[in-house]
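chain and backbone:
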Amino acid sequence: MTLLVAVGPGASSPRATIAPSAQASAYAVQVIVPGAAGVSSAPVSAPPDRTATGSFSYGAGAVTAGSVSASAVARRAAPVTASAGADINGLSLFGGEITADSIAARARATATAKSSSGQTAGSLVSGLQALGQAVSSAPGTTVVLADWGLLTVMGGSSASSRTGGVPGHRTSVLALHVRLTSEHGGLPAGTDIFVGHAEATVQAGTPPAAAKPAPQPAESPPLPPLPRRKVAKPAGPTRAPGLSVVVPRRTPPTVQPKLTAGGYVFPVYGPVSWSDTFGAARAAPVTWHHGVDIFAPLGAPILAVADGTLFSVGWNDIGGLRLWLRDGEGNEFYYAHLSAFATGAVDGAQVRAGQVIGFNGATGDAEGTPYHLHFEIHPVSMLYLGYDGAVNPTKYLLAWQKLRDVPIEGVIGWALPLAPGSLAPKPGAILLQASDISSASGLDPASLRRALRGPPAALTEGSLARPLTGQPASPGAG
């Protein structure tokens, strides 16, 4: 029997519709033991957007990390984007046989109706050592671990795709992978240890079909043209040709999460002037002020606000000479418009709170403005928001500005070093004279004035060596 199918004139199959999609996932550490369930720390996936923090320990010290965090973000609105990140600080494997100061994994993918792309910018491994030897963090580095395993650094992939003619992209990165070829440290052969994984996958959607206009009867006469009317222009300023109104991607956050790494200090050394300008309108692509501007003289030392790791040290057109600092909890701090970097300010450098990392300036889009530091705070709990995960620094800066616990050694790194054979004292403060004000009262200004006048003129020069208790020096004390 023959089946005939009749197709009417003008008939066509409906076009397949592809919905936009975005997925992101990340974890800090994952241990997979043959024949056992895998164990992961800070695993997250989006949508919905997720973030996780904590610490990690497995196998009686076989795998430990001081702090871990991960975040995942997915956006299906055009352009479709997905981003994921993981951060690990203080990694130690097998009792210190493999260590790393800090690890960051970053993956981002974007797709539009015409193209797609992916990147892993910001991924790094700092201070990696294996069996007592420094290991390069170059992607694809592989190290043989004695007779018991292999270590691979910065693996990953990035590939574009097309589904029904619509672009898509998948990007992934794995900072460290240790594979045991023999039993070691209490873990069996075949065990895999993955550290710092991030993955982002996007697929653009099919553009909506244009609505067909309703057919008009052939005998309908054409509509007459509308009469021109003179419309009065509204009073007030007009926009220059070529400018467009930009709607902020996200309103400035109002939360003030606690930063728990501790030991924070003010980011500029010396006299400063600043005010709360967080959230003020800015030109595209920033759209709103993500931090505050701290005004100080040209070349004023810029300090690390906490112990941590520097990354993205370099130049961009908006921030000029700029860098990022990540503290031990995973919080990130952005410094922009510097005039110069300190000698040791390089990607992956470990710094201490109060250490000089640069010098105040007005580079980037701040050129021609008063010298200042643009400073931002991005808490670890808000990194899933990307660059918009910034909070108002005012409360934090006011607290740090009151602290006076930074030793003088922490802020003299910018001074010229002494010659190796020099007998000159180390730069710092030298006490020339002291007055005992312990008997003065803060409620009696006159008593403070008397105490600060110094010793009476009748005292001899040698009396300056007397104890600060105010009692006469013992014989021979001069």
Observations:
- The CA atoms of residues 244 and 336 lie 26 Å apart.
